[in-house]
Every structure is written in structure tokens, then in C-alpha cells.
Amino acid sequence: MADQIDECFAEYPSFDYDRTQPSPREFYRMCNQFRWDRRPNGSHPRAREEAWQKFRAVLVIQFDRSFGVDAVDTGTREGICKSLELSPIPLDLDSMRQMSVAQHRLKHSAYNQHYISRMGPNLKIPVLLPNLFVRFLRDEPEKNPHYRATRYDSEEAVIRECKVSSNQARAIRKCNFSYFAAIMVPDADAATFRVICDWGNWIFPFDDLFDDGELRQDGTRARKVLTWLSSSFQQPLASLLSYDEDVNQFGDIVTFHDHISTFIRSSELEGSTDRYARGMQEYCCGTIDQVHRHELNKRPSVEEVFKNRRQSVCVAPLFVLMQLGQRIALPSGIFEDPVLQRLQELAIDLILLHNDLLSYPKEEAEGVPHNMVAACRANDLTAQEAVDYITHEINSRHDKIEHTTKELFFRYQFHELSGQLLVTYVASESSSKLIYTGASGPEGFSPRTSKAGCSRAKQSMYYSNHLI
Q: What CATH number does residue 288 fall under?
């Protein structure tokens, strides 16, 4: 028998509604079918907003008809508890919420263990992904004029001088970080553009040492290598720590960063050297923390992983490189403004959430635990629930970015020069975020997603039933 939810979906006859599936999941599937995508400014099309208001209204009506409207009524609680199979019936709403969460986790833990025992850890679970990509590259973007000449030289320099493996060399060429850089800094001169490309092509194989390389569970040598890298923020590092035989084998890839650090130190932009050094130092601290956690086989909470990933994803230095490339000469004091810092943290969150969502199948196969999806599943969420949680976090940050950007511009609207430059900086930072999380250019570029073997967004993906 049709109910109000069925009637709501019946208003969209071209959508093949399946009433046997959870209605919220069907709503988001309908949004994907009709391409009601989130716009670059974070808003949704009017058709999607109207459909959401109708859907939310019928959900409330359906719930009220099923269970009643009086929250303190015993009959209402009994109906809800019967539906959720909660026993004994709790005395108040707070107790009922606590019992339902506990039972939900217990059921899904038992469900996962049942299927792992029957089907084995190789069982693949389909999950529905959110629409992650923004169609801002539908029109040909402005690209740096040095892109074609620089791409090959930068990639081959990293491959040759860092002595990476053949698999890493293929990944570097396939990733094509230079395309991302060409859109991010279209006005950069040849020398600055080359340094930015070198940094992007270098950071991936360097980071892999700690993700799935031989330093992933070697805290002692990992700390030495990261300390060696950190020393380049103050002085050329070719002579530093070279006596330590434990890490000399990593000398080529560590010292490659020396010319990048030297170039940034020579910049005339106020405060750029200190902010780059601080960003790279945070990356080093986050990376050594994840290595120690992996070494101790410690299971962190979702919040702990989130905090660590903000550092280890290594995005803060990218903002400095973007500023250098576009020659945005903001006073250094502006970067201490808590509103701008909050905006940058939100941008970092968006990048790491997209990265972890699409990189998870690859990292899961390699047993990498420092991933937001892995953290959610390790804390008793199913694969789809983990994806839904991260989707919620992505959407909430889009909303917060819009609010925070307005707040920031309001603060500096009467500072003529700083205000104009700040608009340029935030626009460039937003472009970097969009490109990094959503680029699918003519050459199939998508930086971190290419590491997961996924060059463009998919409607669905298969996760294994194995819990890291």
C-alpha cells in the first residue's frame, strides 16, 4: 500500500524509485540521476532544494503517523522501541537514544563478523559515493603558459634524481601534477612554476615511504628522515645527517627538496618562508605520529585520525606555493587572523576527506589505517555508513566555507589594498581546493585520486568486507 513517501517520489516519474530501499538513499540516488549537483559556491539547484523540502516534510508526517507526536507519551516510546527491538523500554528519551546507538553498533559488528566468517575477507561490498566532482572545468581553464615545457622536465627530474621505482615513475607521469599547478597558478613565472611542479611530483613518492613503504612501521628511522627534511627549512641540508647510515639510503629523495626550500627562502613575500616551514613541520609531526600509531598497532578514534590527517595530508605548504606563484603580497599579520586560519582549515578538511574517500580501496588493500574511512569502519560503522558520515562532513564544510568567507571579507572591506589582495588570495585558495578535489581535465588528472586508481568520480565503488 502506497504511503506519503511513495507519493512524494511519484512526482518524479522518470526516476525508478525502489521502495524496498531506505528512502534517504533513494532520495540521494534521485539527486544523482537528475544531476542536482552542488554548485562551486556551495548552494544547490532550486529543484533539489524544493524536492528536499517535500521529502523532509513527508518523512516527518510518516514518522508522526507511525509513532505519534508526543515525545513524553509512553505509547510513543513503546512503538519506537518495538520498531528498534529495544528492551527493556527506557524511562526517557536520552536513555532511549543511548540504547539505540549501542544496539546499532552491536548489530553491525555482528553483521560484519557473520559475513567475514561465511564469505571471507575478500567479499566486496558496493557503496554509493556522493557526487564529488564539480563541473568547473567544463570550459577550458586558463593554464600557465609554461605547462607543456615544464611538465616533462619536472617529472623526469624527480624520477631520475630521487631514484624512484618503475611503479612510482608510472604513477608520477599518470598523476600529472603539473596540470593541476598550471590551473592553480596561471600567472606564475617559469622558475616559480617549475619549483611548484617539482614539489608536487616529489611529495607523493616521499609520502609513500611512510604510507606503504619501508618506513611505515619504523618509527626510529622515520623520525631521522623527517628530521633530516626539517633541517632544510633553515639551511642547505646536503651535509646534514649524512653520517647516519640508517637513513643514507633515503638521501636522494630527501635532498631533492633542498632546492625547493632554497627557492622559497629567497622569496620577497613577507612571512612566506616561515609559513611554508611551519606547514612542512606540521606535515612531519603528523607523519611521525601516524608511523608510531601504526608501529604500536594502536586503534585511534575518528576524531584522533581527523586531527592527524589535517597535518599529514600536507596541504598547508601548497597554499604558500600558490601565493608565491600568483605573487599575492599580503601582510603576514593577516595570516594570523583566526577567521582566515579557520577558512584554511576548512579547505584542508575538504581535500583530505575527498582524498581518503577515493584512496580507501587502495589503502585498504595495503593495510593503511590512517584513513578516515578506515577509522570509521574500525569504530563499528559499516562501509556505507562510513561513506555517509564523510559525505556529511564534506557538506557541512561547504556550508561553513561560505559563511566564513563572508565573515572574512566583512572584516577587511574597509582595508582597500589588503581587502583587494585578500579577495585574490581566497579566490586562488578556493580554486586550489576545487581543482585538488574535483579536477578531471582533458588529460584525466586528479591528484590523489589517481593513487587510488580512480581518475574521475564514480557513482559507486567496491570496498572489501575486511576491517583494517
A: 1.10.600.10
Taking the C-alpha atoms of 317, 321, 326 and 331 in order, what is their torsion angle to the nearest 10 degrees?
50
pLDDT tens digits along 293-329: 877 777 788 889 999 999 999 989 998 999 899 888 8
Give the DSSP H/E element, type plus range, for residue 126. strand 124-128
Total domain count for the chain? 2
184: in domain = yes
Q: If you count DSSP H runs as helices and E runs as strands, how many of each does the chain have, helices first?
A: 20, 2
Query: What is the per-residue DSSP string for 403-450?
Result: HHHHHHHHHTTT-HHHHHHHHHHHHHHHHHHHHHHH---TT---HHHH
pLDDT, greater one: 23 or 84:
23
Q: Per the structure block, which three cell numbers stand in for 257?
A: 627538496
- pTM score, whole prediction: 0.67
| Boundary (domain end) residue, out of 122, 153, 187 | 122
Mean of all residue pLDDT scores within the chain: 77
Cell of 33: 540521476
Domain of 36 in residue numbering reads as 4-122
Cβ proximity of 309 and 356 under 8 Å: yes
Question: Which of 122, 149, 165 finishes a domain?
Answer: 122
Q: Tell me the C-alpha to C-alpha distance, in Å, between residue 447 and each of 95, 175, 348, 414, 460.
A: 46, 6, 15, 38, 19
The length of the chain, given as a count of residues: 468
Look at residue 165 in the predicted model and tell me its pLDDT: 92
Phi then psi dihedrals of residue 269, to 5 deg: -70, 125
Q: Are residues 145 and 110 in the same domain?
A: no
Q: Please tell me whether residues 84 and 207 are part of one structural domain.
A: no
